[in-house]
Amino acid sequence: MLKIRQYVRPETLEEAYELCLKKKNRIIGGMLWLKMQDLSVNTAIDLQDLHLDTIEENEYEYRIGCMVSLRQLELHDGLNDLTQGALSQSLAHIVGVQFRNLATIGGSIWGRFGFSDVLTLFMAIDAKVELYERGIMSIEEFADMPRTVRDLLIRIIVPKVRRTTVYRSQRNASTDFPVLACAVSKTADTVCCSVGARPGKAIIVRELPDDPAEAAEYAVSRLTFGTNLRGSSDYRRQICRVIVRRAMEQLEDMEV
Fold it and tell me: pLDDT tens digit string along 230-252?
């Protein structure tokens, strides 16, 4: 059971950050994963008064506030045009619309969950995160940070880079966590793929060969896979070969 001693809505980022530094305090976000934990929270921090629930756009990037819901992202025309619909594809199987209306991008990224479709996709498109104390860093660097680090995730930044992106996942049921998740992205200079639900958190593999079969073998050779109730390490390895190859073939079709 989740027990909350007090509830606070900070009026400034500084106030929110100071509250975050205390170990027994928690940002509540959409309250979807947190409420399922057996946890005693001293102060529940609600960021809804900080205007972080919008998606801003300028000439160079999209700036996604941490309180933006997954449903807002799923329906955002600009981000889906930028990713050729891959963003929407990465979100479409996350439980259901009601869940995605509540779940926030901040919670999805900050958690760095092994099963995260969201982290997998954003890593492949070279997104960045903006933290209150540590500033802006690549999402890849952020994913490697120790979970013990205390900071406040303010927004996710997506650069407007000309690229082609494909998202694929394997699931035992359409709204279940993925057995394996994969996003492949191609720019004028290189091809990379991000593979998540290994079942560890997403890892990016850069400079894939252009040939789909070779790219699949290259990716598999640089990744490790584990076993859980959804699949064995050997099964995931085989699924990865298939998914990366098919994603690369889809990229070729999109470029015709």
Answer: 999 999 999 999 999 999 999 98
